[in-house]
Structure formats: C-alpha cells, structure tokens
Write a structure and sequence with these properties.
Elements lengths: L12 H15 L7 E4 L6 H10 L2 E5 L5 E3 L6 E2 H5 L4 E9 L4 E8 L8 E5 L5 H5 L8 H7 L14 H28 L3 H7 L27
Parallel strand pairs: 1-2
Antiparallel strand pairs: 2-7, 3-4, 3-5, 5-6, 6-7
C-alpha cells in the first residue's frame, strides 16, 4: 500500500493491512478468485508476500520512489522507469530492498498529470494496467460515506455493534439516494443527461481472461 520507507497517516503498514485482510478469508467461498486493487499509498513488501502466499491476484499502484531492479542494469526507481515514456512493461522485476518479485506495467495517457505504475501478478500489458480502473467504482462511495456525504468519521462511535447499525442505515440511505437519482435521471433527465445518452462510450481494458469486474477498464467478472 505505500513504499516501506514512508510512514504517515495514510500508511497503515502491513500490520494494519493484515488486520483488515485476514477476516476476509473466512467470508470468501471456497475456490473464489480474488483480485486486490490498491492505490499508491499502500503497497509494501509484507502485502506482496501475503497475497502471493494465498494465491490472490493483484494490481497495486506504486509511487515513483520505489526501488526497482529490472535485471537490465543498475537499480533504479519506478519514477525513473516511467520518465518520458507512454507505455512500458517489465516481467520479473525486483521491488524494495527485500526483493519482492513481480511484474510491472507503466502507462501514461494523454491528459493525466502522472503515469500509472502498476505492480501485478499477470502478464504486463496495457489491458492489465487498466484493470486498476475497476477500483474507481468504489471511490465515489468512499466520498459519500465520508466528508462529502454522511461524515462517518465524525460519528465518534466506540462500540462495534452501534457502528454496524449506523453503517447499515447509511447503506440503506445510500441505496435510496442512488435509486431515486437514477429514476429521476431516466424519467426527467436534464439537458446534459439527454446529451450524454447520445454519446457512445468506448470500452477498453482487460483481456478476456482477467478476473476484474466489467468497467471501462475491464470486461470480466471479479470475485472481490
């Protein structure tokens, strides 16, 4: 989830990540295929090892200061590999001082200030890099639950049962809001909504054998 050299409020460290991940093992059905997609604040050597031990797939976005050895020269950083290129792909690269082995995909699209630097267990291609776009589907939900919506972090509830009830109420409220907004958009669309319906949306992204959910960046099923 971030490089191991940085610590801060956004970096839980692997111990904190493990507390969140371990309970998921009991929730998953036998044989479920899982892909973990994480933002660039989070990747760590401990997380890579945990994922590999359990056979989970991954698309983990990296910062530009991660130590990297591609086997094609001296050690460098992910930022140096991404500098001045539009696309670049590596297999069997070593990350961090601990020597985590993974594949690496770099994609810098027009209009984006920074490149995507994605560590992955799959063959590195443009499509597998764009698998990370599936993560965007949950970002609006985070905003709705937090400061742009229900302000969950300001509840200051201490008891787990009370927090669970609040989250349930919020989930029902969010469903109602989305359903009401959808119905209004269908039955009484604004001029902008009418215009967007006439525009076709190109779909790009994951290859047919990807396990990522259908989105603009992919086209298969995700078991996360």
């Amino acid at each position: 989830m971030s490089t191991p050299s940085e610590e801060g409020a956004a970096n839980l460290g692997f111990a904190g990540q493990q507390v969140v991940l371990e309970p998921l093992l009991a929730w998953l059905p036998s044989g479920a295929r899982v892909l973990l997609s994480a933002d660039r604040f989070y990747p760590s050597a401990g997380l890579f090892g945990w994922l590999q031990a359990r056979g989970w797939s991954d698309r983990l976005r990296l910062k530009s200061n991660v130590l990297t050895d591609t086997g094609q020269g001296d050690e460098t950083t992910t930022g140096a590999l991404a500098h001045g290129v539009t696309e670049r792909y590596f297999t069997g690269v070593r990350l961090f001082a601990q020597g985590v082995i993974t594949n690496l995909g770099i994609l810098h699209e027009d209009g984006h200030p920074e490149p995507w630097i994605i560590a992955m267990d799959a063959a590195p291609t443009r499509a597998s890099v764009l698998d990370d776009a599936a993560r965007w589907a949950i970002e609006p939900m985070f905003s709705d639950v937090k400061g742009r919506g229900f302000d969950l972090e300001d509840s200051q509830l201490q008891h787990a049962e009370r927090l669970e009830r609040l989250v349930l109420i919020m989930a029902l409220a969010m469903y109602w809001c989305v359903r009401a907004g959808r119905d209004e958009g269908l039955n009484d669309p604004t001029p902008l909504e009418k215009k967007s319906r006439r525009r076709t949306t190109p779909r790009i992204g994951a290859s047919g054998n990807s396990i990522v959910a259908w989105s603009r960046g992919s086209r298969a099923a995700c078991a996360v």
